[in-house]
C-alpha cells in the first residue's frame, strides 16, 4: 500500500477522530488525534489555549504538531483539527507528506452533531451558530478540496461505511 501517512481533514464534527480510530484499527496502524496531541503537549484544552493564548498561538501549535507528529517513515492515521487547512504552510505539509481524506458534511449535519456532543467549540461560541458554521465552512471548503486526495460525503453514512469507502479507495 502506497499510503503511509493518512490524514483525515474536514470541518469540526465531521467524524475525523471517530473514523480515524476505526480506520487505524482496520489498517493496524497507530492513530493520533492532533488536537489531543496538542492538549497533551501543552497541558491545556483547546478552548483554554484559544482563550488564554489566542487563535494564532493555537495555529502555531497545530503547525508544529503537524510537522513533528511523525518521525521517519511511520505509517499512521492522523485526525487533524478542522482549521488545520487555514494555514498555507499546513496545506503544503499535508499535500507533500500525507494522503488526505476529506470527510465532507453539510452544515446541518455539523450543527446536529455539535448539539449532540454538547462541547462548546471556540469558533462557534456565537449567537447564530448555524450562520457561523456556514461561514467557516464556506471559507475552508476550497482548502479542504485543495489538500484532498479522496473525499467522502459523510452525512448519511455510519462509521463502518465511511471506513469501507476509504479502504476501497486506498486499495485501488
Automatic annotation (TrEMBL):
Record PANTHER family: SHIKIMATE KINASE, SHIKIMATE KINASE 1, CHLOROPLASTIC
Lineage, broadest ranks: Bacteria, Bacillati, Bacillota, Bacilli, Bacillales
Pfam hit, one: SKI
Residue positions binding substrate: 35, 59, 82, 140
Protein name as annotated: Shikimate kinase
Pathway: Metabolic intermediate biosynthesis; chorismate biosynthesis; chorismate from D-erythrose 4-phosphate and phosphoenolpyruvate: step 5/7
Keywords annotated in UniProt: Amino-acid biosynthesis, Aromatic amino acid biosynthesis, ATP-binding, Cytoplasm, Kinase, Magnesium, Metal-binding, Nucleotide-binding, Transferase
Subunit note: Monomer.
Catalytic activity: shikimate + ATP = 3-phosphoshikimate + ADP + H(+)
